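Protein Record: Sequence and Backbone Structure Tokens
======================================================

Structure line: whole-number tokens from a learned vocabulary of local backbone shapes, matched to residues.

Purpose: to set a sequence beside its fold so the mapping can be learned.

___
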Amino acid sequence: MTDISSNKIKRIEELVEQLNKASEAYYNGQDEIMSNYEWDAMFDELTALEDETGHVLPNSPTQTAGYESTSGKKEQHEFSALSLAKTKQVDELVKWAEDYPIWLSWKLDGCTLVLTYDNGKLVKILTRGNGTVGTNITHLKNAIKGFPLEIPYKGHLVVRGEAAISYSDFAAINDMIEDEDEKYANPRNLASGTLNLDDVEEVKARRVHFYAFTLVHLDEPMVSWGERMHYLEEMKFTVVDREKGDKNSLPEMIEKWTKRVESGKMDLPVDGLVICYDDTEYASTGRVTGHHATRAGYAFKWQDESVESKLRYIEWSCAVSTISPVAVFEPVQIEGTTVSRASLCNLSEIERLGVGRECTLEVIKANKIIPKCIAVKDAVGEVEIPTECPVCRAATRIHTSNSGTKTLHCTNPDCTAKNVQKFSRFVSKNAMDIEGLSVQTMLRFINEGFIKEYADIYRLREHFDAISKLEGFGEKSCENMDKAIEKSRNIHPVNLIFALCIPMIGLDAAKKIVHTVGFEAFLNRMEDGKGFEDIDGIGGEKSNSILQWYANENNARILKNLLAVIQVQKVEVLNTENGRCKDMTFVITGDVHHFKNRDVFKAYVEAEGGKVAGSVSGKTNYLVNNDVESTSSKNKKAKSLGVPIISEDTFIEMFGGENAN
């Protein structure tokens, strides 16, 4: 063996080891070892060396479909869930399409799941695993959205799709994680970590959504992939976006879909496009390797455009307790947009890249969306690590995790940035309902010093000149923000109490307080320390929580300052003693026609002394469903328990509410 061949084989072994280690982290929600850009470059190098030398290791990522060490019961797939062949060349896709009709769809950046239905019911959910064996996560069936638990088709049906988390949900969830070591690198990393959890409620809170991308099997003959996807939609699956074409229209289609990603308006994480044949029988005739089936589909990944720029400075931003570095560099054009900022994640990433006080950064837009630094050259000096928090000026400390990741933290337990969860609830729909003030936006304003307490949100107009000059904002953004803030000034007392983030006091408790004693009495009782035990459904624990919250001088001051800049609506105390629904429990399901929506319907029942539950039980007095003859699970449960099922019209005849609109 020549020295050249020996060196190339050694390089192959190095690449396989590095890529497999990165894949293990990628597929199991662990810390990201390398970017997709770096992984693709190393994979391409490995493929070229294997072709040149003929030396292919059994565990090479070119021969395997993935890596998964997820704990849980392992089961073999009925139909192998292999990876797709990938290319960055449009002409290769055109050649592959031949003269057959094809479909173009997104290559979603999530976790592949396989769903199995028998006799109309979901009986199994498997992760992709290594393509042959996956992990059974059927226990999470009620925690993931995007697929029905029951379908009208009674035969054997297998669906494959991607479980993904949107960018906005990813950002909101990450911002709520105080420990930097527990934060996730990207939505795919979060989705993978989430599907490893056993707690159904915690998984549900992560807002994982399933997008079907192929109907693998059904007993009935249905050859067209397009018809199969339409059939899934009819059965209430969320199905991936798609467009039909052929080899002639494919280049234009790819350009159009790429522009959708480059527009920056895509909230769903995608890392490429996929084409497949409409003729599923022809697609099944391809050759199968250990990695993919040659006709099952072809994935297109974008050529990442890298640009070099001079580092201007590093901006330090505090969220919860972690202070994160952001590289601010000379503005450059990448993928058709101007970019001047990119997250550096943490202190370890600064060290890994070799960022200096002065340096040149190589930047890409990962998946056409997120600016990312991938390399550094000409570094001079060391990055100066802040000794003070940028928000509260308290001392900082460097924390090193068990895995060796270094992060910077604020030592002040009362730092405003640590209250981002409270600000997020304050502006939420059930609270002050201020559109456009995302967690990320508020963190930016907190770090800029614009927001320190709730009342400051209503003074943001004073900072609009400065805000309009921030990246991502402008005069129109400020105008829309101003309208949303002004609209929220006039607030219902129930929503206001919920917005205050008093421990143990949610919407239901707020309703009971307002409807029983009124908002003025709520303020007076807190001031006098009288308590709320006499209110049905509050009790001593919740009452003490309210009084302890108000006893904190800072909380009392924040509430007083807030009341000075908003108007609380006058709401009459309700007399539910003689209400038409007194002591009765209702379940409301399906669409409503007379009431504006189900929340308004629920409010009417509660105002009349009744209760609205989420599920039918032996304690339910009436199930309200405008489709009285429906075969839904709630109707079936009501019939089995002898609970009367009434329409909205019948409800109004019996209990009033005719002026619900």
Summary: The two ends are 85 Å apart (CA to CA). The longest helix spans residues 3-27. The first strand starts at residue 74 and ends at 76.
